[in-house]
Amino acid sequence: MPEQAPVVLITGAARRIGAAIATRLHGRGYRVIIHYQNSAADAEKLCAKLNAIRVDSAHSLQASLLDIDSIAQMAEASIAHWGQLNALVNNASSFYPTPITTATNTQWDDLIGSNLKGPFFLCQALANELKKRGGSIVNIADIHAHQPLKNHSIYCIAKAGNKMLTKTLAKDLAPNVRVNGIAPGVILWPENGAQKDDEQKQLIKTIPLQRMGSSDDIARLAEFFITSASYITGQTIAVDGGKHLA
Fold first, then answer.
1. Directed axis angle between helix 105-112 and helix 153-172, to 10°?
2. Which residue spans within 108-244 are E strands per DSSP?
3. Residue 198 per-residue DSSP state
4. pTM for this one?
5. What's the domain count of the chain?
6. What is the CATH number of the domain that holds 138?
7. CA-to-CA distance for 91 and 141, rounded, in angstroms?
8. One digit per residue, pLDDT tens: the chain, 246 residues?
9. Does a structural domain hold residue 63?
């Protein structure tokens, strides 16, 4: 592995969309730092897979995005591991319903913490390193940042803040760091099985392209923002088959 190979930290990268982003950027020659909170086995499995392709090209780190000290420690460890950090993807996210009649302070702290507060303070902790490297940040938002989802008010509020985080940091970190966002639509079904088959079919009918997207659709845009979009900053692009048009 050449010393100059760039390094990217991806939060929530052990599984699903995060793992797809890690795999695609690894394929472009990046060394990847795979952050996880609870998915240690999945993180180690992905690291082993990527390191089998290219020795010493993947590393995992555990941290809680709800803990400021943990975030600071992860930022420091991310830079220290290979002596540099060139890009950050804020992908980790909690997602579940919070009806207004039953929503709790704990749910508020969790959803705002993982989707907004954590990404903000991780960006803060890595800002100087990313400025030095002429780096890039990609924030994973959601089409529900501007198109509310019933009974998910706290999540939608958090993702709306995440979208504004992209805009504000694009100004604050310019001209050295580019900051962009991705707003996924129907890419993966929630793992809690909350949506039944008939509900899924009805949702697909509301998408102009009449199909789901894939994790790789998100990963390819993340790759573009990091590797090719040298004159784009402050943008959040919906990857949703046209669902935002509804």
1. 30
2. 136-140, 178-184, 236-239
3. H
4. 0.95
5. 1
6. 3.40.50.720
7. 8
8. 445 899 999 999 999 999 999 999 999 999 999 999 999 999 999 999 999 999 999 999 999 999 999 999 999 999 999 999 999 999 999 999 999 999 999 999 999 999 999 999 999 999 999 999 999 999 999 999 999 999 999 999 999 999 999 999 999 999 999 999 999 999 998 776 555 678 888 989 999 999 999 999 999 999 999 999 999 999 999 999 999 887
9. yes
Q: Does a structural domain hold residue 2?
A: no
Active-site pick, 30, 36, 96, 155:
155
Residue 1 lies in a domain: no
- How is the beta sheet containing 31-36 ordered, strand by strand? 58-62, 31-36, 7-10, 87-90, 136-140, 178-184, 236-239
Could you tell me the residue range of the domain that residue 106 belongs to? Answer: 7-245
Residue 96 is among the residues annotated as catalytic for this protein: no
| Residues whose CB falls within 8 Å of the CB of residue 101, separated by 6 or more in sequence, listed in order | none
Q: What whole-number distance in Å separates Cα of residue 78 and Cα of residue 82?
A: 8
